[in-house]
Amino acid sequence: MTIPTVEPGDGTLHGWFSRDYPPVLTVDPGERVRFATLDCWWSAGPYKGGHIRDRARVPQYVDGAGHALCGPVAVRGARPGDVLEVRVDRVRPGPYGTTFAGGRDSDHNRRYALVDEHAVLAWDLDPETMTGRNQYGHTVALRPFLGVMGLPPAEPGEHSTIPPRWHGGNLDCKELVAGSTLYLPVTVDGALFSLGDGHAAQGDGEVGGTAIECPMEEVEVTFGLRAGWELTAPLADTPAGTLTLGLGSTVDEATQVALEAMFGLLQRRFGVSRTEAVALASVAVDVRVTQIVNQTVGAHAVLPHGAVR
User: Fold this and answer.
1) In degrees rounded to 5, what are phi and psi of residue 267?
2) Phi, psi of 264 (to 5 degrees)
3) How many angstroms separate the first and last alpha carbons of the chain?
4) pLDDT digit string (tens) for 258-298?
5) d(CA 291, CA 39)
6) DSSP per residue, 89-114
7) pLDDT per residue over 98-117, tens digit each?
8) Is 169 in a helix, a strand, or coil?
9) Is-above-0.90 flag for pTM?
10) Dist. CA 10–CA 157, nearest whole Å
11) How far, in Å, CA of 250 to CA of 37, rounded?
12) Distant-in-sequence, close-in-space partners of 35: CB < 8 Å, separation ≥ 6
């Protein structure tokens, strides 16, 4: 069976979320789709020098656009109140990536007292050995994932891709690698799923504001649909364990949201009271900072596989 493919180009690239964008593809639940993506900056090629944002962009770039997203893909039968299941089957990064940090031109940089000057790391990526090497000879292991996977808000108009939302978007969770399944509350008919913002590697927190931002040569996802499953925030099953993701204006707020979702999960899974779920979480659940750089802060609670039996 031929896998439908969505590649960056006219009609598929967009820099905002919007319920008003027509789907580029409509699939049935259970169907797999193959994507290719640009890096987040809509770059036409690898970093060559100068300021990172001075690099050539593809013709479809519109001034002021956010991340270069591909889609949207509609899932037949999806309705608000359902849950979209996005199984990440394969993620293969492109041959180059870039990390940018520093400067005081954003609230994040001012808040965390980053240096005034800018720093740019240009990476050569090897998708066969899953290693990256920068211009200074530093080598890191690659663990590629998509920083942005999400659905548009129910409100009309175009919405920024930068802040993550309760229905996904710029989550920047490094655990959403191949082998993961992300669950998102459906906001609009058809779901209208988009993805982009390839990360070849990232640390928890994404403290400098960027990961190894890269194009993705190949991303395969399989869509599913669940009705009657109450979900008010992103949830994921990953190789690291089951994750509940929380968002908020502060780390404390995001952590509390993630923990409340985890307490509920433990209650349902193990048939315990809320107080017993809190006690179990204190023993078996890890709390991590997802990211602190996207206007809305993210945290995630992780229940490792087999931690409670």
Assistant:
1) -60, -45
2) -65, -40
3) 39
4) 999 999 999 999 999 999 999 999 999 999 999 999 999 99
5) 19
6) EEEEE-SEEEEEEE-SSSHHHHHTT-
7) 999 886 555 555 455 555 57
8) strand
9) yes
10) 20
11) 31
12) 5, 6, 7, 70, 71, 195, 216, 218, 219, 220, 221
d(CA 219, CA 145) in angstroms, rounded, equals 9
**Integer Rg of the chain from CA:** 19
Distance CA 66, CA 241 (A): 31
Residue owning tokens 């927190």: 205
Q: Are 151 and 231 in contact (CB under 8 A)?
A: no
CA-to-CA distance for 60 and 55, rounded, in angstroms?
14
Scanning 55-205, the segments in alpha helix (DSSP H) are: 107-111
Residue type at 54 in one-letter notation: D
Contacts for 75 with CB less than 8 Å, ≥ 6 apart: 26, 27, 28, 29, 84, 190, 191, 193, 223, 225
Q: Which has the closest alpha carbon to 147: 105, 97, 189?
A: 97
Q: Which domains does the chain have, with CATH numbers?
A: 5-226 (2.60.120.580), 240-303 (3.10.28.20)
For residue 213, what are its two tokens?
């931002």
- Amino acid type, 58: V
Model confidence pLDDT, tens digit, residues 51-76: 666 678 999 999 999 999 999 999 99
Cβ(97)–Cβ(125) below 8 Å: yes
261 membership: H or E segment, kind and range: helix 251-270
- Residue 13, classed as helix, strand or coil, is strand
